[in-house]
Design goal:
The protein is an all-alpha fold. The protein has one domain. It is built from 13 helices and no strands. The mean pLDDT is about 100.
């Protein structure tokens, strides 16, 4: 398989893994135990890898959310605990999610080996949220470590996508309504109506998707054709 084919095949399973971790009721319960409920856990847990920065830095890194919403929940979370501590705690929650959900799957050791080579070999330039997550310490056990590496790779695609959208000149709301989930996606991320018409922005969105696909594929070039085929087969066999 080519790097492009591999990235396309793994886009959904990697994206879904990160979403399932963040939406897991046990993740939310762990956040509540720290005093972080709902969106403050999400923004401080993910964004805390950037360090103790002003909210506008987190707005820039998250890219697709309403700035006022990010600012509100980042500051609310930061009033409870230091961002770096929240990031470490969130990574621990990700490790626990991996242990609950990835233990015993076929080929997890080999999948971790290959995915970790991809994540650790990816170019860091212009991708601070990805690099922040990549720099967080990882546990030694395979399922816990794999859960975190999947999240790191999810942050890579999300970060290159943010760069691509910025490169074509789309604003965050326009990108949402023109994108795959349309107005439902904009509403989910907290944007208030009225929304702009999507049609004038769809050509730019398509160009951003092309740029994202190309950038997301590059890290997989560290693997051989046979290794990429093997990796896709391993992940495809997981439930």
């Amino acid at each position: 398989m080519t790097p492009e084919e591999t990235a396309a095949a793994l886009k959904k399973p990697i994206g879904d893994a990160g979403f399932r971790f963040m939406a897991d009721p046990l993740t939310r319960e762990a956040g509540k135990a720290l005093g972080l409920r709902g969106r403050p856990l999400y923004f401080l847990g993910r964004g805390g890898a950037l360090g103790d920065v002003d909210a506008e830095v987190v707005v820039a890194a998250f890219a697709f959310f309403p700035p006022a919403l990010v600012t509100e929940h980042w500051n609310a979370g930061r009033a409870v605990m230091a961002p770096r501590d929240a990031a470490l705690a969130y990574a621990d929650m990700c490790n626990e999610w991996g242990r609950r959900n990835l233990t015993g799957l076929a080929g997890v050791e080999r999948a971790l080996e290959l995915l970790e080579r991809v994540a650790d070999g990816a170019a860091p330039y212009g991708l601070p949220l990805f690099v922040g997550w990549r720099a967080l310490p990882r546990p030694d056990d395979v399922p816990g470590r794999l859960g975190q590496v999947l999240m790191v790779l999810r942050e890579h695609r999300g970060s290159v996508h943010a760069c691509a959208v910025a490169a074509v000149g789309l604003g965050p709301l326009e990108a949402n309504v023109a994108g795959s989930y349309g107005e439902a996606g904009a509403e989910f991320l907290g944007w208030e109506r009225p929304y702009p018409a999507p049609e004038p922005h769809r050509a730019d969105w398509s160009r951003a998707e092309e740029l994202t696909a190309a950038a997301a594929a590059r890290p997989f070039a560290v693997l051989s054709d046979a290794e990429r085929t093997e990796l896709v087969g391993l992940v495809a066999a997981w439930p």
